[in-house]
């Protein structure tokens, strides 16, 4: 919808939805440029000045604007020289009364009928009138959030009416626990929302889904209660099942971890009495939650075995000497 109004000598366009008339949009645009260029009007009443202003009103690429300006050049000249004193509201004189592509604010359609609720407060102040200010539209109301109905006087679910008569309505949001209500607190609920329940005091209170015997979450998650709902969070990697966040909330420790005074910590498999890397020329390297077996320095893995990569060099006075190389990859 497109509303076009003159405020304090300035034509103001308000586009609230798709404009129903490109002519109305062009009209409003031209008036904005014309009025802003010609103000103050009394001191600029020469034909040369008018022509200069009109030549700069439209962009060269704007077909609608240029077409309207060309078609109605005589109207602008008439208003400029003869009508502006008697009709200072150029928007009303040109767009509404002369070429009839616009309507007064609060009216719509070919005959500029009043919007629902009247032209002073379309949709009773709680919505937008389709076609407001244009010769198009059907005058139906698109209600603001919280309101519904043909006249935007009724409240939607989750809102209640604080004030209501035939021409005015004030809808206020219910408490977050209420599906429907008569007031603003959780004691005014007609019906509780899902995730809430009525207690002995007829008040809607949060349902703690996490306190039930069976958790609504997966085995590797813990339940976190929220107002009106809950969420499932991943357990710490050291846990096999948990009741909360962190390594101290594990129900049991995951493989590769052990319970140390109530907290799951890494098991150092490489320091155990029984070796875990049992092949010849292997070394154990501990990792978080596990370990790896690698070939010792001077050996590399081949077909599952650690094969020597460098023969020791002989030195005078000794049968052989040790050499050191970089460690190789994991078996």
UniProtKB/TrEMBL annotation:
One of its GO terms (cellular component) is endoplasmic reticulum. CDD domains: FU (cd00064). InterPro entries: EGF, EGF-like_Ca-bd_dom, EGF-type_Asp/Asn_hydroxyl_site, EGF_Ca-bd_CS, Furin_repeat, Growth_fac_rcpt_cys_sf, LE_dom, NOTCH1_EGF-like. Disulfide bonds join 143-152. It holds the Pfam family EGF_CA. It is found in: Endoplasmic reticulum. It comes from the Eukaryota. Residues 111-153, 266-305 form the EGF-like domain. GO terms for biological process: epithelial cell differentiation. Gene3D superfamilies: Laminin. GO terms for molecular function: calcium ion binding. Keywords: Calcium, Disulfide bond, EGF-like domain, Endoplasmic reticulum, Glycoprotein, Repeat, Signal. Its main location: endoplasmic reticulum. Residues 306-331 are annotated as: Disordered. Belongs to the CRELD family. This is Cysteine-rich with EGF-like domains 2. The gene is CRELD2.
């Amino acid at each position: 919808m497109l509303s076009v109004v003159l405020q304090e000598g300035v034509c103001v366009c308000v586009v609230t939805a798709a404009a129903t008339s490109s002519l109305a949009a062009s009209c409003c645009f031209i008036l904005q440029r014309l009025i802003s260029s010609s103000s103050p009007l009394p001191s600029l009443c020469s034909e040369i000045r008018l022509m200069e202003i009109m030549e700069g009103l439209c962009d060269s690429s704007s077909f609608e604007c240029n077409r309207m300006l060309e078609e109605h050049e005589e109207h602008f000249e008439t208003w400029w020289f003869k009508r502006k004193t008697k009709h200072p509201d150029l928007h009303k004189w040109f767009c509404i009364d002369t070429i009839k592509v616009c309507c007064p604010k609060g009216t719509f359609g070919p005959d500029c009928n009043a919007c629902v609720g009247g032209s002073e407060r379309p949709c009773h102040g709680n919505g937008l009138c389709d076609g407001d200010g244009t010769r198009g539209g059907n005058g139906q109301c698109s209600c603001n959030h919280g309101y519904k109905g043909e006249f935007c006087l009724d409240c939607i679910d989750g809102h209640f009416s604080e004030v209501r008569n035939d021409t005015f309505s004030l809808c206020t949001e219910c408490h977050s626990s209420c599906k429907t209500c008569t007031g603003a607190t959780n004691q005014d609920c007609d019906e509780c929302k899902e995730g809430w329940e009525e207690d002995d005091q007829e008040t809607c209170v949060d349902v703690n889904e996490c306190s039930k015997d069976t958790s609504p979450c997966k085995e590797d998650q813990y339940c976190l209660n929220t107002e009106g709902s809950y969420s499932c969070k991943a357990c710490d990697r050291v846990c096999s099942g948990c009741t909360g966040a962190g390594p101290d909330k594990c129900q049991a420790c995951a493989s590769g971890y052990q319970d140390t005074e109530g907290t799951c910590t890494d098991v150092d498999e490489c320091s155990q009495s029984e070796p875990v890397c049992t092949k010849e020329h292997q070394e154990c390297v501990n990792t978080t939650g596990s370990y790896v077996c690698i070939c010792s320095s001077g050996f590399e893995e081949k077909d599952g075995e650690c094969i020597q990569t460098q023969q020791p060099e002989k030195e005078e006075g000794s049968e052989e000497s040790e050499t050191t190389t970089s460690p190789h990859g994991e078996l």
